[in-house]
Design a protein that fits this description.
Layout lengths: L3 H4 L20 E6 L3 E3 L4 E8 L7 E3 L4 E2 L8 E4 L12 E2 L9 E4 L2 E8 L4 H11 L5 E8 L4 E5 L6 E5 L2 E9 L5 H10 L1 E2 L2 E2 L2 H6 L1
Parallel strand pairs: 4-12, 5-13, 6-13
Antiparallel strand pairs: 1-10, 2-3, 3-9, 6-7, 7-9, 8-9, 10-13, 11-12, 14-15
């Protein structure tokens, strides 16, 4: 666990440590696991990247408070937030071939579409894993506004949650969280994704 909320100015000494990813000073990551909607013809996939629901670390990023204006200037999509040294480059972008940034609030969640790079071999293989529903997790990296970090008592169990009322989206990523281990093992045992041998960088990452 990381101390990113403490770095952001929150006083959490009396509660659970929070932060699903250690993303550096002031940054925090939140994930969702929803089967992506894949378009094979243009190597794209749409997925829910964040919701206002409590996550496993008892955190909530309020959908109404997620600011995407800066992200729209450089709408990159990474693998594991670029933390995996084997795959540091973006694997795609949330920008369609006609230049439209496709990320939108839908009810109490944020959905986005990733168009995968067609020149980066690793991106091609990550898309293959998404298309085969081996990878189906997405996560945002966000910078919370310190003054918007509060606590609430969860009505379901009476325990405290950390609530991020406002945050700036930095990027979103595909990742390993929630991957079915049997599906991964089957994929690795075959040594192939579709018709291509799995790249060493992706084998190491998985």
């Amino acid at each position: 666990m990381c101390g990113c909320m403490e770095n952001a100015g929150a006083k959490l000494d009396d509660g659970p440590k929070v932060g699903m990813y250690d993303l550096g000073p002031n940054a925090i990551g939140f994930g969702a696991i929803v089967a992506p909607n894949v378009n094979m013809s243009d190597m794209s996939a749409s997925v829910t990247i964040s919701t206002s629901r409590r996550d496993r670390q008892r955190e909530r990023v309020m959908a109404d408070g997620l600011d995407i204006e800066q992200y729209k200037r450089n709408p990159v999509v990474l693998w594991e937030h670029g933390l995996d040294s084997a795959i540091p480059l973006p694997v795609g972008k949330s920008e369609s071939p006609n230049g439209e940034v496709v990320i939108r609030k839908t009810g109490d969640a944020w959905d986005a579409t990733c168009w995968f790079s067609q020149t980066l071999p690793t991106a091609y293989q990550v898309f293959g894993l998404v298309a085969e529903k081996i990878v189906r997790a997405a996560s945002i990296q966000a910078l919370p506004f310190p003054s918007s970090i509060t606590r609430e008592v969860d009505p379901e169990d009476g325990l405290p949650n950390v609530v991020i009322g406002r945050a700036e989206l930095v990027e979103w990523s595909w990742g390993r969280m929630g991957i079915n281990p049997d599906a991964v093992r089957k994929c690795l045992d075959s040594g192939r994704i579709g018709e291509h041998a799995i790249l060493p960088a992706l084998i190491k990452s998985l």
